[in-house]
Design a protein that fits this description.
The complex is a heterodimer. By secondary structure, chain A is mainly β. Chain A has 3 helices and 18 strands. In chain B, a hairpin with a 3-residue loop joins strand 7 and strand 8. Classes of the chains: A mainly beta, B alpha+beta.
């Protein structure tokens, strides 16, 4: 009996996942709700600057280490918003990070467990050096002729990405156990769609400002707004 | 048991019996703990956390076994094989404070492997996954050429420098897993490679990377698999596997004018003599981790002057800022005069009763002659006649210091051919914060000015030969006559 339920649930999830990639409308019609999260930070942006002594034609003469990026309406960018404890199948879209201008673009990537595509569009040597505990940490050279590498991250955790050649390069990959997540844009806003209706805990994670959670009631076919204010 | 293993291996057939005498053995962690307590705690600490009593003085820091991170692996995953750990214990880590423990019985070393692993049993649950290497490519001019191309394409220079002297632009930024500054290897000094100097060792490090450091894995990051070997062959071509140190220094007698230019062709013809330097650890402040470990010396003299060409690696041309960065300096030290006995001034810049005479070259200032009566008691001599010229290129200084043979006054040494003249060296890497007594040095060596070889050697032997021939002919003739 249990097996049957599990199988049905699994099937539902797969259908849900497929539907999601197909388009949000169908998914909403199937009974999911939308969470619109707005994350604010009432402090100043923290962007460390560093003089660059190499590869200036690619990296520029001044590197920026974006520890806290704040938009015009005090919106906090680069925060990962997710539905805590949710379950769901992997998204079909392969996540991708580019090393461009000696920066990880995007600065924060969220993905479901699986493959991550690492691009090097700089035409110079970078090395992907990850700091992780659940997944094996890697340190692989990516010379200029190696435009794309694919790495697997199987376990949910937040992984730091660095490059030893360009010590200011910093990126984050949030590997999620479910597809209900988003990363805030320059205005501190992100939307999570197809969230199962009911009481849900929304969690925000930011590399410098830490975590916060809030309870929300998700209703089918409706958008639930939730606001966070992060503190130091 | 051992016999069974051997028979087993033979039965499998074709399994190469490696040159290493040791088969992997299952060690006994409890027995290893006893050996550890006697031999290892001083640096690695009772808890294995790398915080032993001596740890704060050591760079690189002793391994923290509780991290389960091991630099030297022959594996594609993070787990070293028992043999990897055994080899590090047996051969030590060249260029660090970890000595080779081959003096310990082999059994003890296997027991140590078991004990070291017991600090992080959870990390060793996963089995080591051997890193395969492409089929070995023998070194050849062609392979070295390809290796150099690939070295440049994969930008090894970013950390290791264009000529491999650890002076790449990323050097100042490099940090290890614990956030501590870490220096890239000087590829021209293979004998300091942590995981060994052989070509297989180099290829393995390239393939696997060095865990816990910025050195990444290159096995999938070269154009063709063979390139691992080509780059290896190129790196191996940058320097000897082990250094040959001089014991007695010789200044060659020359007839040509001695050039000031350290890059002049002249110096290539003068034999090079390598001198190892140690950190100064006698007086405070001490230098436990000297930056300069080797000075290469070429010396020449003619009837007027003597000159020294000194070459050493230094990753940065230091611009003194009065705080962290001091000037890069090298000093040649002699007694003020050479007596008939064996007595010499104290090698560490003399003392109050016996002074030393120094030729000191400082980047940006040139050469001064000085007298010293102990560290910090250096007095420049008036009316210096010494000259010097230095160049800095790709992480290396080359300096020529010159002086007339004859002295002016009692404070300066007069150089004479055929005399064993005491000589010592001191060096400071200002960029590494070395100044004052924080320096590298040698104790006394001897310098001998090679006797000038006159043209008589081309005249006398033929004359003697001719005379001998004539004498023989006379004898033969006399003998014939008697008959």
């Amino acid at each position: 009996m249990r097996k049957v339920i599990a199988a049905v649930a699994g099937l539902a999830l797969v259908v849900g996942g497929v539907a999601m990639t197909g388009g949000t409308r169908t998914a909403t019609a199937q009974g999911g709700g939308t969470i619109e999260a707005e994350v604010k930070y009432n402090g100043a942006a923290v962007i460390d600057k560093l003089k660059v002594n190499k590869d200036v034609e690619k990296c520029g003469t001044e590197a920026m280490i974006e520890k806290i990026v704040v938009g015009g309406t005090k919106g906090l960018a680069n925060a990962v918003v997710s539905v805590a404890g949710a379950k769901g199948a992997a998204t079909a879209k392969k996540a991708s990070v580019d090393q461009h201008g000696c920066k990880f673009v995007p600065h924060v990537t969220a993905m479901t467990a699986g493959e991550l595509e690492l691009k090097n569009s700089d035409d110079i040597l970078h090395n992907i050096h990850t700091y992780s505990t659940a997944n094996p940490s890697i340190n692989k050279a990516q010379p200029k002729f190696k435009k794309v590498m694919t790495e697997k991250f199987e376990k949910p955790e937040i992984i730091k990405l660095t490059c030893d050649v360009h010590s200011w390069m910093l990126g984050w990959v949030a590997v999620m156990p479910h597809p209900f997540f988003g990363v805030t844009d320059g205005n501190g806003v992100t939307k999570i769609e197809n969230v199962p209706p009911g009481k849900q805990t929304v969690e925000v994670w930011h590399e410098t400002l830490g975590k916060q959670t809030k309870e929300v009631e998700v209703k089918a076919g409706q958008t639930t707004k939730v606001a966070f204010e992060m503190k130091k | 048991m051992r016999v069974a293993v051997v028979i087993g291996l033979l039965a499998l057939g074709g399994l190469p019996l490696s040159a290493s005498p040791s088969f992997a053995q299952a060690g006994d962690a409890n027995a290893g703990k006893v050996v550890y307590g006697r031999r290892c705690v001083g640096c690695h600490g009772v808890k294995g956390d790398g915080k032993g009593a001596a740890a704060e003085l050591l760079t690189p820091a002793p391994r923290d076994f509780t991290s389960g991170i091991y630099k030297i692996r022959s594996t594609a995953n993070k787990i070293p094989t028992d043999k990897d750990l055994f080899d590090v214990i047996t051969y030590g880590m060249p260029g660090t404070s970890m000595p080779p423990w081959s003096v310990l019985p082999e059994k003890d070393r296997w027991n140590l492997v078991a004990y070291v692993k017991s600090f992080t049993p959870e990390k060793f649950k996963e089995a080591p996954k051997k890193q395969g290497l492409p089929k070995e490519v023998a070194s050849s001019a062609e392979s070295i050429k390809r290796g150099k191309e690939m070295f440049e394409a994969i930008e090894c220079n970013k950390c290791h420098g264009a000529d491999g002297r650890a002076d790449g632009p990323s050097r100042p930024e490099l940090k290890d897993e614990w956030g501590q500054p870490i220096a890239p290897a000087n590829l021209t000094k293979r004998w300091t490679f942590r995981g060994g100097a052989s070509r297989v060792d180099i290829a393995t490090r390239l393939a696997t990377g060095i865990l816990g450091t910025p050195m990444p894995s290159f096995i999938d990051s070269v154009e063709k698999p063979d390139d691992i070997w080509h780059v290896t062959n190129y790196i191996a071509s940058l320097g000897p596997e082990s250094p040959s140190y001089a014991t007695l220094l010789t200044a060659s007698a020359v007839k040509d004018a001695i050039p000031d230019d350290p890059n002049a062709e002249f110096w290539r013809k003068i034999p090079v003599q390598h001198v190892p330097l140690m950190g100064q650890v006698i007086v405070d402040p001490r230098n436990f981790n000297p930056a300069i470990d080797l000075v290469s010396v070429r010396a020449a003299w003619d009837d007027k002057e003597i000159a020294f060409q000194l070459t050493w690696d230094d990753p940065t041309l230091s611009q003194p800022d009065g705080k962290q960065v001091s000037a890069d300096v090298i000093a040649l030290q002699f007694p003020p005069s050479v007596g008939t006995g064996t007595e010499r001034p104290y090698f560490l810049m003399g003392d109050t009763s016996d002074a030393v005479y120094q030729l000191r070259w400082e980047h940006g200032k040139g050469v001064v002659e000085a007298t010293a009566n102990g560290p910090g008691k250096i007095v420049p001599l008036e009316g210096s006649e010494a000259t010097g010229k230095g160049v800095f290129q790709n992480g290396q200084y080359r300096v020529v210091i010159k002086r007339p043979l004859a002295s002016k006054g009692a404070s300066r040494l007069t150089f004479r051919p055929g005399v064993f003249t005491p000589i010592a060296f001191q060096a400071w890497d200002g960029g590494a914060g070395e100044t004052g007594t924080k320096m590298s040095l040698t104790s006394w060596y001897y310098l001998r000015l090679e006797e000038p070889q006159s043209n008589r050697r081309f005249v006398i032997p033929p004359v003697v030969a001719l005379m001998t021939l004539a004498a023989m002919l006379l004898v033969v003739r006399a003998a014939n006559r008697r008959r």
